[in-house]
Design a protein that fits this description.
Layout (H helix, E strand, L loop, with lengths): L7 H13 L6 H13 L5 E4 L7 H5 L5 E5 L2 H9 L8 E3 L13 E6 L10 H14 E12 L10 E8 L3 E10 L4 E10 L2 E10 L3 H10 L3 E6 L12 E7 L3
Parallel strand pairs: 1-2, 1-4, 2-3, 4-5
Antiparallel strand pairs: 5-11, 6-7, 7-8, 8-9, 10-11
Helix pairs in contact: 1-4
Bound molecules: S-adenosylmethionine.
The site of S-adenosylmethionine has 20 residues, from helix 1 and strand 2.
Length: 248
């Protein structure tokens, strides 16, 4: 598969994104992020790859000063059309640059739902950490929610899962794994009587230990690693929520 541009995902997914992720409840993430904001320094908060505002809009409703960056106009148009979405300043750009416009320093920067891995090379991921560190206030946090790669899912470096099967549609997810580049290239395939709809998604995964090293290179230290937004113990599988901190 060709390397997608940062705007490709949004262009191909914006019109179905909220519908296809309607069963993802952001409540635990919002509660945990709000608690982290309350514990940290005062200042604005930035979501990288804010998308349609699934997490940022309910977080802003708690009175937190939110900003966003996203590569896709199509995704951000959806955010702006939602109640409260037009009050969140969003800059169109690549999250590796962490450039929300202006010179603001942030109390917290976060990126959820494994979207950090949409940065398609180790260089871009390292650059993102370094730019986040530059933008954080002393004592500020960088919070990531990422999957833990489960390579046992892939037989001959590929997998196909039936995500949904209903009387009028089937949704399949086909993925190829590239162990050299640490890449997953996938397609969500919606099959209905009307035809076939493809929604591609590619990511460059990193192990938690690799993320820790990127943080150290950027001058951040790991403060917490949980197995989820309820601060469950991290057991090495599934996903993790990790909090890095800029020394005060
Ligand atoms: C899976 S969605 C996540 C959206 C939102 N954070 C959420 O949790 O619902 C991925 C988002 O990442 C954005 N994106 C992908 N690559 C990006 C990049 N390099 N820089 C900024 N945004 C990017 C897409 O446009 C899309 O809005």
């Amino acid at each position: 598969m060709t390397v997608p541009g940062p705007e490709t995902y949004g262009e191909r997914n914006a019109d179905v994104y909220d519908e296809w992720h309607a069963d993802l409840d952001p409540a635990d993430a919002v509660r945990c992020l709000a608690d982290l904001v309350a514990e940290g320094p005062a200042g604005p908060v930035l979501e990288l790859a804010v998308g349609t505002g699934r997490v940022t809009i309910p977080l802003a409703e708690r009175g937190i000063d939110l900003r966003g960056v996203d590569a896709s106009e199509a995704m951000v148009d959806r955010l702006r059309a939602k109640p409260g979405g037009d009050r969140i300043p969003v800059t169109i750009g690549d999250m590796a640059d962490v450039d929300p416009g202006g010179d603001d320093r942030f109390a917290m920067v976060f990126v959820v739902f494994t979207t950090f891995f949409f940065l398609m090379s180790q260089d871009e991921q390292v650059r993102c950490f370094s730019n986040v560190a530059r933008r954080l206030l002393p004592g500020g946090r960088f919070v990531l929610e990422c999957l833990v790669p489960d390579l046992a899912r892939y037989q001959r470096q590929q997998s196909v899962d039936a995500h949904r099967v209903d009387h009028d549609h089937v949704r399949l997810v086909a993925v190829r794994h590239d162990p050299v580049e640490q890449r997953f290239d996938g397609q969500h395939i919606l099959i209905t009587d009307a035809g076939i709809r493809l929604a591609p998604v590619s990511m460059r995964y990193a192990w938690p230990s690799e993320l820790d090293l990127m943080a150290r290179l950027a001058g951040l230290r790991r403060r917490d690693r949980w197995g989820g937004w309820r601060r469950e113990p991290y057991l090495g599988a599934g996903s993790h929520v990790t909090v890095y901190e800029k020394p005060a």
